[in-house]
Amino acid sequence: MSLKSGGRPLQNDDAGEILLELVDHLDAMIACWDSQRRCIFANDAYQHWFGIRRTELIGMTMEELLGPLYPQNLPFIDAAYQGQRQVFEREITTPDGQVRHSLATYTPRILGGTVEGIFVHVADVGPLKQLERQLREAKADAERAAHHDFLTGLPNRVLLKDRVNQALALSRRSGQKLALVSADIDGFKHMNDSHGHSIGDQILVKVARRLRDALREADSVTRFGGDEFILLLPGVESLQQVEVMVNRVLEEVRAPVEIGGAFLKPTCSFGIVVYEATPDRPDPEPDVLIAQSDKALYRAKLNGRDRYEIIQPTPIDYERTVLPSPASSRLEL
């Protein structure tokens, strides 16, 4: 039993006053409704939620209080009066026009085995909903950050393997070819050394956007690392189609750009591998395709840059591909 400040036990009247004062300080609505669905007790929170004083609410029916919300709540009300506890969410518009997201609990009041009414508790869960939304957004941002390059916004190499596997599966189902293209900005190290890393970053962003804009919706561009990109072109019909697409990309990248008062003309070299699934052999791993396109890119660098080279490996070539070690890097050409 609760005690007053002298150690004397509370009398029933005192306890009732303190209990009423307690529930009136709650933001949640608390009420009791009799078997005729009329209010016999309510706290002051109803004035904040519905603009109705406690004295006005006593004797009012649930339908009179809820108005247009009544048909929506009726299945829960009926179930509670049948002895089943109900918990549900509902949006309630307050008199000042604010929409509060609530969690309502209807608990049957059972006396002598008979439902004599229900207790109602309605709490504002808007802050919790806002926190849930923020957590979902933070999770989505974290997932995007894990799979996308922070500078260019392009997918990164973590996501690349999954996309290549999807393209390989599509190629096997459709009978169409796919092309994987390694791209590298020509002379990027010199640009960085001459103009600074800030200008270099802006060049990366510009080139990344141009690569993406020059391709089809179904194609994808990945920043593979540094100034290297991977273009994935699924569902192509022929080598000639791939050449047309890469020539378009070459032209798009070459357009002069002004950054920090300097006019620069970026170019890229491309290495292309075109793959077609065969019934008698499994598909190569994504790293194998990338290694083959990297060989073609190296040839393009050696042959003058600002161009592309194509290789069409045989199944044996794929099997014999030696993957570069993670610490290896391409010679800057």
UniProtKB/TrEMBL annotation:
Its cofactor is Mg(2+). Residues 176-313 form the GGDEF domain. Residues 15-91 form the PAS domain. It holds the Pfam family GGDEF. It comes from the Bacteria. SMART domains: GGDEF (SM00267), PAS (SM00091). SUPFAM superfamilies: Nucleotide cyclase (SSF55073), PYP-like sensor domain (PAS domain) (SSF55785). One of its GO terms (molecular function) is catalytic activity. PANTHER family: BIOFILM ARCHITECTURE MAINTENANCE PROTEIN MBAA, DIGUANYLATE CYCLASE DGCP. This is Diguanylate cyclase. It comes from Hydrocarboniclastica marina.
